[in-house]
Write a structure and sequence with these properties.
Oligomer: single chain
Bound molecules: 1,3-dihydroxyacetonephosphate
Strand content: 15-25%
Structural class: alpha/beta
Helix content: 25-40%
Number of strands: 8
Largest sheet: 8 strands, parallel, barrel
CATH topology: TIM Barrel
């Protein structure tokens, strides 16, 4: 199963559902539809209405983040996994570099992952090195630390997917070369196999994926799908990514 996940970040108002209606109708007719899953993570404000609208349809709704405390607490503007689950959302991203930059430490992320899983959300755990770390050839050590500090054997491994998003690639149009990316995804899977004792952990790639470069990514067999930012805000681009992937 491949994943095409659209992360809307700070984008979307109620009428943006039109974008998803188009993606949904494409995907319901697509002959390849049984080979992939479409997940969209709109902002919190749209989780409930979108989840209701796409219940039992082709698009699965997820959250972009969740809070590190359970159920209800006195933290202004915070949204817990419990609250997200009650909107009907099925997934949550955790550890996106935007949120790491805003203060999400490994300890916080560990709490987030634990609570999300306890509330029966599937987790897309994001990791990735920055430009300087890449330059210093620290990519592998950074990724290993990000994984080992947060993920552990006792977690429900079947509900965790990892998304590799090199920070230098997000929103820049720059993408890793095929050989490096292939090695990195292989490395991440190796670590995950060690942590979870699982045969085939799923690893996605994210960072400037678009309808043109998706063909190159397809060559890398280890990649189980994509986390797509900018291009997920256009139904045409998002649909073209899926079409070109299977062409
Ligand atoms: P872009 O596809 O815009 O580079 O964003 C990637 C991303 O951060 C998805 O979470």
């Amino acid at each position: 199963m491949k994943y095409f996940i659209g992360n809307w970040k700070m984008f979307g108002i109620p009428k943006s559902i039109n974008i998803l209606n188009k993606i949904n109708s494409f995907s319901s007719r697509d002959k390849n539809r049984n080979r992939y899953r479409v997940i969209i993570t709109p902002p919190y404000t749209l989780l409930e209405s979108f989840s209701k609208n796409f219940k039992n349809k082709r698009i699965i709704i997820g959250s972009q983040n969740c809070y590190q405390k359970d159920k209800f607490s006195s933290n202004t503007a915070a949204i817990s996994s419990y609250m997200i689950k009650k909107t009907g959302a099925k997934y949550t991203l955790i550890g996106h570099s935007d949120n790491r930059l805003e203060g999400d430490t490994d300890t916080i992320l560990k709490d987030k992952v634990k609570l999300a899983l306890e509330n029966n959300l599937k987790v897309v755990f994001c990791i990735g090195e920055n430009k300087l770390q890449k330059k210093k050839k620290q990519t592998f050590s950074v990724l290993k630390k990000q994984l080992k500090k947060v993920l552990e054997k006792k977690l429900n491994k079947n509900n965790i997917i990892v998304a590799y998003e090199p920070i230098w690639s997000i929103g820049t149009g720059k993408i890793p070369n095929q050989k490096d990316l292939s090695k990195t995804v292989y490395f991440i899977k190796h670590i995950l196999k060690n942590i979870f004792k699982k045969k085939s952990p799923e690893v996605l790639y994210g960072g400037s994926v678009d309808e043109n470069n998706v063909k190159m990514f397809k060559q890398i067999k280890e990649i189980d799908g994509f986390l797509i930012g900018g291009a997920s805000k256009s139904s045409k681009k998002f649909i073209d990514i899926i079409k070109n992937y299977y062409r």
